[in-house]
From TrEMBL:
GO terms for biological process: nucleotide metabolic process. The chain holds residues 1 to 114 of 140 of the full protein. GO terms for molecular function: catalytic activity. A motif (Histidine triad motif) lies at residues 98-102. This is Histidine triad (HIT) family protein.
Length: 114
């Protein structure tokens, strides 16, 4: 855990998160500033800043959880499609330096994405 990391604090339960699902190594919770209804973030429970910092098994767990969850989120909000993305590094738009995958439900004609 990184002391001043907001996502580590959510994983630890020190600040509230609207948890969508949990595995041994990952946590999924709703984005506080959603781009669309159901916008979900999936994070490894351990603190790693960049995708390349993840051990292979944690990276596999993270993608497995995205794979399992994305269709469920899409169904839950009755969306038409899903955008999945990772902003890996500050210049790519990463604001929280704890690896996270975005699951963003998309709707016919919504005209934009992350
Ligand atoms: P990034 O730009 O790093 O890829 O995305 C960070 C995301 O984290 C943003 O979509 C932002 O709304 C979300 N976020 C930032 N702080 C919090 C928080 O305290 N709780 C939750 N649930 N999401 C947060
Ligand atoms: Zn962290």
């Amino acid at each position: 855990m990184s002391e001043d990391c907001i996502f580590c604090s959510i994983v630890a339960g020190d600040i509230p998160g609207r948890v969508v699902s949990e595995t041994e190594t990952t946590l999924a919770f709703l984005d506080v500033n959603p781009l669309a209804p159901g916008h979900t973030l999936v994070v490894p429970k351990d603190h790693h800043a960049r995708l390349g910092d993840l051990p292979d098994d944690v990276a596999a767990d993270l993608f497995a959880e995205v794979h399992a969850l994305a269709p469920r989120v899409e169904d839950a909000v009755d969306a038409d499609a899903t955008t999945i993305g990772i902003n890996d590094g500050e210049a790519a738009g990463q604001e929280v330096p704890h690896v996270h995958a975005h699951i963003v439900p998309r709707f016919d004609g919504d005209g934009g994405g992350p």
